[in-house]
Write a structure and sequence with these properties.
Blueprint: E1 13-15, E2 18-22, E3 26-30, H1 33-41, H2 43-50, H3 65-77, E4 86-91, E5 97-104, E6 113-120, H4 129-143, E7 148-153, H5 158-166, E8 171-174, E9 181-183
Parallel strand pairs: 6-7
Antiparallel strand pairs: 1-2, 2-3, 3-4, 4-5, 5-6, 7-9, 8-9
Length: 184
């Protein structure tokens, strides 16, 4: 199922060779090799390349060094204008703050399905920000030919399940990882 944000036209745009997706409260900044190398160098370097405040509580859950290195390898192999990447979620007001990550795990598969992932720092959860980001990704995916968007989570991650539900996904069965469930 593909959905979008009501009343929004979300088009990824390239600004200074960066892919940016705007939503009412967020800027999703495409993770290119410069940003990901900043992430690996530490919070101060990341803050500089994002031009944002990076909270002391950074990184969000599941964004460990292995995940960053995986995203970096993928970013270095994909065309610079590819939308099928990880994004940094930047809250724009009252100041620009890095609050989490989201993105596409891979380009659409042979059936036109693309998987999204998302993680928000605890202090910014329960505000609809992950849902806002996922809806934006779903809109962008639809505009770029995806026929379905799915996500996977663990059954005990109720906040993640709620994001899937609020984004219009329904549980479809087991995920590809042990213990995971899939929604589309």
């Amino acid at each position: 199922m593909l959905a979008g944000l009501p009343g929004n036209s979300i088009f990824p745009e390239k600004i200074l060779n960066r892919i940016i997706i705007e939503t009412p409260r967020l800027q999703l900044l495409g993770a290119d090799s410069t940003v990901l190398r900043g992430e690996l160098a530490g919070r101060a370097a990341l803050a500089q390349v994002l031009a944002a405040v990076v909270p002391v509580s950074w990184p969000p859950e599941f964004l460990d060094e292995a995940a960053v290195r995986w995203a970096l390898a993928a970013a270095e192999e994909m065309p610079a204008d590819s939308i099928w990447r990880m994004y940094y979620m930047l809250l724009r007001h009252p100041e620009v703050i890095a609050i989490g990550t989201c993105g596409f795990k891979f380009p659409p598969d042979a059936h036109g399905c693309v998987e999204v992932g998302y993680s928000v720092l605890p202090g910014f959860q329960r505000q609809g920000l992950a849902t806002e980001a996922v809806l934006a990704l779903m809109d962008v995916a639809a505009r770029h030919g995806a026929r379905e968007v799915c996500a996977q989570t663990l059954p005990d991650l109720t906040a993640s399940l709620r994001v899937m539900e609020k984004s219009g996904m329904v549980l479809t069965g087991a995920g590809s990882e042990p213990g995971a469930i899939r929604g589309a």
